[in-house]
Design a protein that fits this description.
alpha+beta, FAD/NAD(P)-binding domain, 20 strands, binds flavin-adenine dinucleotide
Length: about 425
């Protein structure tokens, strides 16, 4: 009887276990999870609503949302794309919906339903789930994997640590963001001990800290669509994304900010070496069109003060700050705005600059970097260096933007790893 060990009961691990269990009849699949329950991160994802996947069904378009790992993901994604993921959850009793911004959620808006469906499936397939099973090491000796886990209810007892043997191992311990969920990066050490390289790790999908103190006075102001360009400290690299953003007490946040932070995950910057974020509040308009619109507005409201005129274009509370930065006379009336002043206003509406001096500490959603993809077969998720060893999920050097792309990568890689093991057992 073949024994499969899956280390880490998150998104990738649960999906890998489910797929592996349809292999050889009587095969033994064991899922090791250090927490007392499965899918801690899945439950809190999407603010508890769990953005399960994306509504982008075209795989080529889908892959544009991964700053790292897109090419490697191709095989897994074609086999288990978002529409199949949605179908999988619907077949397992979780009704799904796709929202206007193409993010897919359970209709219940409850991430627990996603985890419950997976756990029910694992139990129905007779998978052994070991809770509180904190894996300490994974080795391979004489063709067999040896797993040592603290307090695991399995194998032969050796003091506090128990030993377990397996023919196949899938490491799905995730990254090291939001460490209180159990994802503390343990798998990087396991992968290294089995001969793998871990690429440089960095926080990805984080909020950004802003130098300018005035920002706090407009915390909470949001923009549904802003064009962002983040320039590296030396001004040589530019990271661009259009989308929603929000001003916070210490900086900026929201989907478009997360995306540029992901693209700039490996940039080094700080107070001494700030990056510059340029915001275009009107990304769909040319400067000429915006200037004409602004001129027309001014002509129609000649007596309005500049700050009240801007009110018609920008969130109200943001206008005072905007005019303050322009350093124009606050009593300037629309009719008195010169051509030169109008040009300056329009330029600032489309090139509003703020200095970025840091990433929101501990605010990142995922870890960039991980197991070097050149050491893993993309068509199976099996290690090229250690036969029988598989990887799936955030432990790999793969990360996506917000919008369901990270969970989608975990489901797809987990399914492919499990399917590959099931196939190998049937051979
Ligand atoms: C706050 C937040 C919100 C997010 N929202 C979304 C979202 O809405 N949509 C989206 O696509 N992505 C979202 N993400 C990202 C997404 O949740 C992760 O990328 C995804 O969960 C990674 O799946 P994984 O299975 O690789 O790892 P994880 O889900 O992190 O699971 C790893 C599991 O391994 C276990 N483990 C670790 N070490 C050991 C060990 N030594 N022994 C035993 N078990 C171990 C952990 O306890 C954990 O349960 C969010 C992330 C965060 C932090």
């Amino acid at each position: 009887m073949k024994r499969v060990a899956i280390i880490g009961g998150g998104a990738a691990g649960m999906m890998a276990a489910s797929a592996a269990a349809v292999g050889e009849p009587g095969c033994e699949v064991t899922l090791f999870e250090k927490n007392a329950y499965l899918g801690a991160k899945v439950i809190i994802s999407g603010g508890g609503r769990c953005n399960v996947t994306s509504g982008i069904f075209d795989v080529d378009r889908l892959l544009e949302n991964y700053p790292r790992g897109a090419k490697f993901l191709m095989s897994a994604m074609f086999r288990f794309p978002p529409d199949k993921v949605i179908e999988w959850f619907e077949d397992h009793g979780v009704r799904m919906k796709i929202e206007e911004d193409l993010r897919a959620f359970p209709v219940s808006n409850n991430g627990k339903d996603v985890v419950c469906a997976l756990e029910k499936d694992l139990r129905a397939k007779g998978i052994r789930i070991l809770f509180g099973a904190d894996v300490k090491s994974v080795r391979k000796e004489n063709g067999v994997f040896l797993i040592e886990a603290k307090a695991a209810d399995c194998g032969v007892s050796d003091g506090d640590v128990k030993k377990y043997e397996a023919d196949f191992v899938v490491i799905t311990t995730g990254g090291n963001a939001y460490r209180h969920t159990g994802s503390t990066g343990d798998g990087y050490a396991f992968a290294k001990s089995l001969g793998h390289t871990i690429t440089k790790l960095a926080p990805s999908l984080s909020s950004l800290i802003v130098f300018d103190k005035w920002l706090a006075s407009v915390a909470g102001v949001s923009f549904a669509k802003a064009g962002l360009t983040l320039a590296s400290f030396d001004g040589k690299r530019f990271f661009e994304r259009t989308g929603a953003m929000v001003i916070t007490h210490g900086g900026v946040s929201g989907p478009a900010v997360f995306a540029v932070s992901a693209m700039a995950a490996y940039e080094s910057f700080g107070k001494e070496k700030p990056m510059v974020l340029t915001i275009n509040f009107f990304p769909d308009e040319t400067a000429e069109d915006l200037e004409k619109r602004f001129q027309k507005l001014g002509a129609g409201h000649g007596k309005k003060r500049l700050v009240n005129l801007l009110d018609l274009l920008l969130p109200k509370s943001f206008c005072d700050v905007f005019v303050g930065i322009l350093k124009f006379n606050p009593d300037l009336q629309a009719a008195g705005i010169s051509k030169e002043q109008r040009k300056k206003i329009v330029d600032m509406l489309q090139h509003f600059k703020i200095q970025i001096v840091g990433r929101g500490a501990g605010s990142e959603f995922v870890t960039a970097g991980g197991v070097d993809l050149s050491e893993v077969h993309s068509h199976s998720m099996e290690s090229k260096l250690c036969p029988g060893l598989f990887f799936a999920g955030e432990i790999l050097d793969i990360d996506g933007f917000t919008g369901g792309f990270n969970l989608q990568a975990s489901w797809a890689c987990g399914k492919l790893a499990g399917d590959s093991i099931a196939k190998r057992m049937n051979e």
